Amino acid sequence: MHPAFLLPIVAICSSPPGSQSSEGPPNVVVFLADDAGWGDYGVNGNRLARTPHIDSIARDGVTLDRFYVCPVCSPTRAEFLTGRYYPRTGVRGVSTGQERMGLGERTVAEAFKHAAYATGAFGKWHNGSQWPYHPNARGFDSYYGHTAGHWGEYFDPPLESDGLPVRDRGYIVDLCTDRALSFIEAHRDGPFFCYVPFTTPHSPWAVPEAYWERFEDAPVEQRATVPDREVLDQTRCALAMLENQDWNVGRVLRKIDELELSEDTIVVYFSDNGPNSWRWNGGMRGRKGSTDEGGVRSPCFVRWPSKLPPGRTVGEIAGAIDLLPTLTSLAGVPRVGDAPLDGLDLAPLLLGTAEGWPDRELFSSWGGQTSVRTTRYRLDSQGRLYDIIADPGQAAPVTVARPEVATRLNRAVSDWDAEMFGDERSADSRGEVDPRPFPVGHAEFPRTWLPARDGEPRGGVRRSSDAPNCSYFVDWTDLDDSLVWEIEVDESGDYEVELLYTCAPSDVGSTVVLEFGEHRLSGTVSPAWDPPLYTNQDTLPRPPAESQMKEFRPLSLGTIRLRKGRGPLTLRALEIPGAEVMDLRAITLTLLP
């Protein structure tokens, strides 16, 4: 392990001076960092960062200098995949089913797949776990990684490959990159669309030791905008995680070089929100979760040696919603679906051929807070206007000096909120289980994973942490307790039931029953399986809001008959001989032939 209007699609008819024309459709590789801020890269002025391979994409390609994403993870991913603002896509949160894109949305992967591209995604999905929300149902032929948001195991992690559980040895970023490299090798004759959504530097703060050793005692001279809130070891660990990520980006770039595909491969790198801790970010205000500049400005670099001029910087504002129309335009791929896009085709900006590019408004929203960015101004979520060109740190409002601009942008925010959220704007449903049922029993994808994060604990049962994504159910002690998943069975049939559980020897022997409608299946929690919590996963102590993980084992409960339709799937205990029933991470239902 090593250290709101559309432009016509632009046809690309010629190459920049000194380049060679591509004879066939270009390959596409998209890297997406998780929780990396604009200021986490050497190319953006961070003197402690070690990101030479990522920086090279900027040096050899085009930098979108004012590029905007969402304040948190799953909304950005939905905007990239669909070219539409996330509220349109059905995404309402980051867990408990609220991260799912509506089934009417069509993705960039579907567009490339329809154009005979091989498509693969390797890493964090975070837009739905069950078919047809799963990446294999959204345009990706191949998928390896985890479909949740936060993942609690970075070393030897339990992941999935096209819906089946796998557990490979190594660090999660290295493992996902290994699969991406194999995909590129297998489809070297192209064309291919390869999406690599990394899991880092999202917490847990866990990085291979060799990387941590190089940062552990490093002086942090460039400090966060709010320096007294910076935890220096978190800064060091984030940069160590990004050095590992950079090494993996380098592996992919080298593979493309070795296969002589560089000239004909579009490479994109960006992040999904602002930094996940207080650390240097160019003096901008805000971090992850904020709609201020520092919470939503992301690096974005686009390289295509045979077409795009190296070292070019684009100053016009752009965002994740623009990537679908831009990539399909550059590759000459028709988009699929007829839903109106919010994004613009940036090809003229990338090529340097744009004339009279219009000013535009880009909206950022999360948790009931909306801000809007124009080429020069940002109106923050409190209605304060800032000249971002003169005041990138949002230190001195110009609301009084420019009342006409403030009035216009306040009206734009009100109109946008009304269009996107309607009456839902007044309610904050984050943390609640999404009312949409979780699909079960599609013949083309017979295995359905129902994790604890998608279920509702009732009675005294609780989650292992406040963050649902990688949690499990604990404190199941009473016969009145139950665990409930609202599901919709697509096909009537017999389903094999498997529980992922742990149980202390003193608690073994509880009788549990799984119920759906008139159908029931009972079984005994046995044998005992009581592994310790992991002590070798984290570089820095894990915060209380994140679950301490352990190894769960499968327990076959038997076969249950499920009838097509919607209703609650309920797991409860009939007998509890010990203090607790078990800890439960997930239920798996597999439709039998």
Could you explain the architecture of this structure?
This protein is α+β, with helices and mostly antiparallel strands and 593 residues long. It has three domains: 30-362, Alkaline Phosphatase, subunit A; 368-426; 438-591, Galactose-binding domain-like (Jelly Rolls). The protein has eleven helices and 27 strands. The strands form five sheets. Strands 1, 2, 3, 4, 5, 6, 7, 8, 9, 10 and 11 form an eleven-stranded mixed beta sheet that branches. α5 (172-186) packs parallel to α7 and α6 packs across α7 (232-258). The two termini are 42 Å apart. 54% of the residues are buried.
Using brief descriptors, characterize the structure shown.
single chain, 593 residues, alpha+beta, Alkaline Phosphatase, subunit A, Jelly Rolls, 11-stranded mixed sheet, disordered N terminus, Alkaline_phosphatase_core_sf
Number of strands: 27
Mean pLDDT: 94
Task: Kindly name the structural category.
Answer: alpha+beta
Distance between the termini: 42 Å
Largest sheet, if any?
A: 11 strands, mixed
Count of alpha and pi helical runs = 11
Can you tell me the overall shape?
globular
| Count of discrete domains | 3
Poorly predicted ranges (pLDDT <50, ≥5 residues)? Answer: 1-21
| CATH architecture call of the largest domain | 3-Layer(aba) Sandwich
Which fold does the CATH topology of the largest domain refer to?
Alkaline Phosphatase, subunit A
Helix content: 10-25%
The proportion of residues in beta strands is 25-35%
CATH superfamily of the largest domain: Alkaline Phosphatase, subunit A
